[in-house]
Amino acid sequence: MNFFKRDTPKFGLGKKKKIPDGLWTKCPNCTHFIFTKSLMDGLSVCPKCDYHFTLTCWDRVKSLTDENSFIEFYENLTSQDPLEFVGPKTYKDKVREAQKSTGLKDAVIVGEAKIDDKPLALAVTDSRFIMGSMGSVVGEKLARIIELACEKRLPVVIVSGSGGGARMYEGLFSLMQMAKTCGALQRLKENGLPYIAVLTHPTMAGILASFAGIGDVTIAEPNALIGFTGPRVIKQTIKQDLPKGFQTSEFNLEHGLIDMVSHRKDLKANISKLLDYLS
What we know:
alpha/beta; 7-stranded mixed sheet
């Protein structure tokens, strides 16, 4: 008989409570943990290091425009598969997955909105949809909203955040959108209407080489990567070290590629002022 065996008392040892996922967000720049709700209330900017997190297109619209003023157009346009692209995944599979994960038909939303009660035509790309790359649908929607702005005498604001550039799965059809969007913006200019380009992290390749790079005024968020080819590829090609801060917003401002670097909390006010000046 074991005289030493007895029930061990438990003092406050209840079931361990599981912390719900998504309560905290880790800043990729300074590794600081941020209460997610506080982060969202602060326009998704790290309160410690000022790192600007990527926003969805709908969060961007909410942060820039007057409440309930945005009216979306051409929302049902969807990508075709002109090359019948095949690989580990087909292009059709990639589009379907992106549509399911984002709730978007393609990588841009366009429409009319108001900023401080000033009407404008607005387009916002979304980097979650195949890296925000520009295929036939993105180019078509941008061209249509610019042409509508010409008809209605509206200024145009396009917010770009595309690391994907022209969408390679559509080949030459995607490259054609560079000329099409620039042609539409030229007609806007001939009509005496302003175009404000807003560049966010990252804005690269065929996007920058077309509509994102030809604003009457070009604004960028802090420390955004802006360029045609990424710094790693350039360094490997030229076999030289690159300047500190190469291709960041601040570097591009210093070298004349952009006109202004604006913190996200000031972006709406700065665009509003520019609309007053340019209109």
